[in-house]
Design goal:
By secondary structure, this protein is α+β, with helices and mostly antiparallel strands. It has 11 helices and 12 strands. The strands form 3 sheets. It has a 5-stranded antiparallel beta sheet, sandwiched between helices.
């Protein structure tokens, strides 16, 4: 460095300005000095390396000649503060170098006073903290990712625990239902027989109200028996025995087991080459239960449509009806029959069984329904030969 770069900084006599400037120039830390007009009067090699601008190029000029306006405004504000308050300032700033690369710098600015004690210059010492901040950011990202993974694992564990508790409850209910089914069905059978005998005793001129009451007894006994059967089937779903199965055959067998009202029109479009990997017995039971729900919903007539299509590694079977749609409480509680004691939910046990059977063999189940809008069940099972 030459004397051109050694300003009058109020240095004690006897100290060579050239020597002092040379020392500063060889300091590894970027250093600059600005006068009260915010012009650079000293710039060392390290600062030139960081900024990308040569020392001689910067001398006598301001930040606005080199750096973006927003950055220069921030630099100027810090300088003004030091000139005004005469105190040390540490500030983190953004620096865009001559190549357009962005850096993060931490600048320590200190006042330099003249012989009269006034602040005549600002001395800046710059530390490039870009790598440090990027490391901090990477660490934060890693911590955030770790927290997300912990939350996901925690949620998964909670979900698994909830599912395990649900299955345990169902197992208990299944055992209990199996143990008392006979005892319950015996009195139900006696009630049904008694109602039948009462009906016979009313001949030949039975009272209409009495006949209707006996019919209600008969229907409710049948309904109670069906609920017991549905709950037992739901609670006793065993492991799936997977094999290659024709989806068209499953649909055909399921439809064959139904008693369709004359007013229900059935449309079926399931390709013969629709082969899936499933437990044939369980899948047929699942489809039958879903079809049963649709048929029961259309007791006064409607249209039942079955269609299958290949979607990636799945075969997707859609069962749609034009019935009144599922009540909200049935749709919301399809996964857990024990969540409520609603009578309507109890009547949806066969739908829950259908869903559980599908999911038991690696498939998925969706339902789209609303009261007055019909119901569409979508069953996805793994395709064979994937």
């Amino acid at each position: 460095m030459s004397d051109e770069r050694a300003p009058d900084l109020g240095i004690a006599s006897g100290v060579s300005l050239e020597l002092l400037a040379a020392i500063v120039d060889h300091v590894a830390v970027p250093v600059f000095v600005k006068d009260r007009d915010h012009r650079f009067v000293l710039v060392n090699r390290a600062l030139s390396a960081v900024s990308g601008y040569g020392a001689r190029e910067m001398l006598g000029r301001t930040d606005f000649d080199f750096f973006p306006a927003a950055e220069s405004e921030q630099y100027r504000a810090g300088d003004v503060w030091v000139f005004t308050h005469g105190e040390r300032l540490v500030v983190e700033e953004r620096l865009t170098d001559a190549s357009g690369a962005h850096r993060i710098i931490e600048t320590t600015k200190v006042p330099l006073r003249d012989a009269s004690g006034e602040v005549s210059h600002v001395v800046g010492i710059v530390q490039d903290v870009t790598a440090l901040r990027r490391a901090d950011e990477a660490l934060r990202d890693t911590n955030d990712a770790l927290e997300r993974r912990v939350r996901e694992r925690t949620d998964a564990l909670e979900s698994a625990q909830t599912e395990l508790m649900r299955r345990e409850r169902l197992a208990v209910v299944g055992q209990l239902a199996g143990a008392i089914a006979h005892q319950i069905r015996n009195p139900l059978g006696s009630i049904k027989n008694a109602a039948y005998l009462l009906k016979l005793s009313l001949a030949p001129d039975p009272d209409g109200d009495v006949v209707q009451s006996l019919a209600v007894i008969h229907d409710e006994v049948r309904r109670a028996n069906q609920i017991i059967t549905d709950l037992l089937e739901y609670a006793r779903i065993g492991p799936a025995s997977l094999s290659e199965v024709s989806l068209a055959y499953i649909v055909e067998q399921s439809l064959g087991g139904l008693t369709l009202p004359a007013a229900v029109v059935t449309r079926c479009d399931v390709p013969d080459d629709a082969l899936v990997v499933a437990d044939a017995e369980q899948l047929q039971a699942a489809v039958f239960n879903l079809l049963r729900g649709s048929v029961e919903a259309m007791s006064e007539g409607g249209e039942l449509t079955l269609a299958a299509r290949r979607v990636g590694r799945w075969w997707e079977l859609t069962l749609a009806d034009t019935g009144p749609g599922l009540p909200d409480e049935v749709r919301d509680q399809l996964r857990d029959p024990l969540a409520t004691q609603s009578r309507r939910v109890a009547l949806g046990l066969h739908l829950m069984t259908g869903r559980a059977l599908v999911e038991n063999q690696g498939g998925s189940f969706e339902v789209l329904s609303g009261e007055g809008r019909g119901t569409r069940f979508t069953v996805r099972v793994p395709a064979a030969g994937r």
